[in-house]
Design a protein that fits this description.
The complex is a heterodimer of chains A (188) and B (360). By secondary structure, chain A is an all-alpha fold. Chain A has 8 helices and no strands. Helices cover 64% and strands 0% of the residues of chain A. In chain A, helix 1 (3-25) runs antiparallel to helix 2 and helix 2 crosses helix 3. The longest helix of chain B has 26 residues, at 276-301. In chain B, helix 10 runs antiparallel to helix 11 (304-315). The termini of chain B are far apart. Classes of the chains: A mainly alpha (188), B alpha+beta (360).
């Protein structure tokens, strides 16, 4: 890897570290797991630098890698890289942050509703809300068509509303509900 | 509850720190850039991480050894494998396609061809890649007992050894297949509490298991016997594609698969033994690629009939017998939809094909 590539990788890392770290923090519960996820994701990018797309798509590519690393992690297949010991300490501090006071019941209800979603729908909703990705971007990251992403998102939102409207812990208050059309899902 | 409220509560449920590069993040960057094993040789090398590439950018038919190797295996085995994999696979010259493998007439393999000769144990998960040059077998025993066997072809045992010491601490000294070996203890990782490796310079085989105590692990190891390749393949029956079973495997994989005119399966099948799934994934992926090239030619010629026929075939690809009957989904299945969308709109695929890796 020449200096140019090294410099470019450093820029990629600096620009996207926070996004990938937060992706990890929101999906695993342990600091060492989150550190592994971040380290493995960027390690893949470093080793496969020639395949990382330029521009904004680089982050989507990284999300695509991170979700596969996460999938391995969830199957009990963690790859401990023994990297990022200081980062692990930082994340440990963060993960011990107390739960938000006052709205714990509502938060728990949302967590439960999320957990009840089909995994594919939940993933799209999480990428939408947590990573603030548009359906087109999610489609790139997941290798799906935008129509499929929109269908999954619509379905996830609908189920979340239904679930929380029936959950006393959610407060049950109603507001304006924005819905989108539901294209027929193909090739999911 | 409206969507905005749900979004707010979701963010509240998983708060994150502000974006930005922390000192820990900076340190990790330097560690990553120093870890790359082939750093001095321009671009970063493929390793077992091959399966971690987003499908849109590296979608198709390649052996994905790492993914299947680890499925269903316990944490400690994964830890060991994570340490071994970059070394064993990386030193093997990267990934190999069946086409390149076929250049070797005599199967070369580091497979120790081990079976467990005790009642109640059977071969569980099997993963071979690169024609058996590296792989893993997990034996399932009574209860939830498991014993994993990993092998590779690296001579870089010193690196493995040091990684093990760093991960698991100082080992006990013992023997494995008559060679000096190191026994590492892995606390709190049932059923993989023990890891056994030859000393540096020895045969690149790793054993992981243990059940409840060291004595159990030793009993498991002692029950391993080396057999001939033919005996080993016979024990696996049709889960491995070897030279003598190749024609039948080709027929089985391509059952119900519409083939493009002139498709030659022999171009994509080699002489080395392969895991049946990897073999089938490559072969069906080659068929898909051939059909996509058929579409591209038809698009250039304005041949609507062929384009329509090709689109129809590929729409049905996810229902091919091989795809439906294996326990894993070939990578190309998930990668195909964007291409089908382009076909449906009668758009050119040429630009998109740049990210669709077809066999040579």
């Amino acid at each position: 890897v020449g200096n140019t590539a090294e410099d470019a990788f450093r820029r990629l890392y600096a620009q996207n570290f926070g996004a990938i770290r937060n992706y990890a923090l929101r999906r695993v519960r342990r600091a060492d797991d989150a550190t592994d996820l971040v380290a493995e994701t960027f390690l893949v990018a470093w080793r496969r630098w020639a395949e990382v797309p330029p521009g904004d798509e680089a982050l989507l590519w990284l999300y695509g890698v991170a979700r596969l690393v996460l999938a391995n992690h969830q199957r009990g297949e963690r790859r401990r890289q023994q990297l990022g010991s200081r980062l692990q300490l930082e994340l440990r501090d963060h993960l011990t942050t107390p739960d938000p006071a006052g709205e714990l019941v509502e938060v728990q209800a949302v967590e439960a509703a999320l957990a009840a979603l089909p995994p594919a729908d939940r993933e799209v909703l999480e990428l939408t809300v947590w990573e603030q990705l548009a359906p087109r971007e999610i489609a790139v990251a997941l290798g799906l068509s935008s129509d499929v992403v929109r269908a999954r998102l619509s379905r996830a939102r609908s189920r979340m509303r239904t679930q929380l409207d029936h959950d006393p812990g959610s407060g049950g208050h109603q507001g304006s509900v924005h819905t989108m059309s539901v294209p027929k899902e193909e090739n999911a | 509850v409206n969507d905005l409220e749900i979004d707010r509560l979701m963010r509240l449920a998983r708060p994150v720190p502000p974006a930005g590069l922390s000192s820990g993040g900076s340190e990790l960057l330097e560690e990553i850039m120093s870890v790359s094993p082939k750093r001095s040789e321009s671009p970063p090398q493929e390793t077992a991480s091959i399966e971690l590439t987003p499908q849109l950018h590296q979608p198709v038919p390649r052996p994905r050894s790492g993914r299947r190797v680890l499925i269903g295996v316990g944490v400690a085995l994964a830890v060991v494998f994570a340490i071994l994999t970059p070394v064993l696979l990386g030193s093997g010259g990267g990934t190999a396609s069946p086409a390149t493998s076929s250049a070797t007439a005599t199967p070369a393999t580091a497979n120790p061809f081990l079976l467990m000769k005790v009642p109640g144990w059977k071969i569980g998960q099997v993963s071979l890649a690169l024609g058996g040059l590296n792989g893993q077998v997990v034996f399932d025993g009574p209860g939830h007992a498991q014993l994993g066997v990993i092998w590779g072809q690296s001579s870089d045992q010193e690196e493995i050894y040091q990684s093990q010491v760093k991960t698991f601490g100082k080992p006990l000294t013992t023997t494995l297949f008559g060679e000096p070996a190191s026994l590492f203890e892995v606390p709190d990782q049932k059923p993989y509490q023990h890891v056994l490796f030859p000393k540096p310079g020895g045969r690149p085989i790793g054993l992981v298991g243990g059940g409840t105590d060291l004595k159990t692990f030793q009993q498991q190891v002692q029950s391993l016997v080396e057999v001939t390749p033919s005996q080993w393949y016979a024990a696996l029956q049709d889960r491995i594609v070897a030279t003598d079973t190749l024609p039948a495997a080709v027929t089985r994989v391509l059952t119900g698969v519409p083939l493009p005119e002139g498709f030659d399966a022999s171009k994509y099948t080699g002489d080395l033994p392969m895991d049946y799934f990897l073999f089938g994934e490559n072969l069906t992926g080659a068929v898909v690629c051939d059909w996509m090239n058929t579409y591209r030619r038809a698009w250039t010629a304005g041949d609507e009939s062929t384009m329509a026929g090709t689109e129809k075939v590929l729409k049905g690809a996810k229902d091919w017998t091989f795809v439906r009957q294996t326990d894993s989904v070939p990578a190309w299945v998930d990668a195909l939809p964007p291409y089908l969308a382009k076909m449906a709109a009668r758009k050119d695929l040429t630009d998109a094909m740049g990210s669709f890796v077809c066999p040579a």
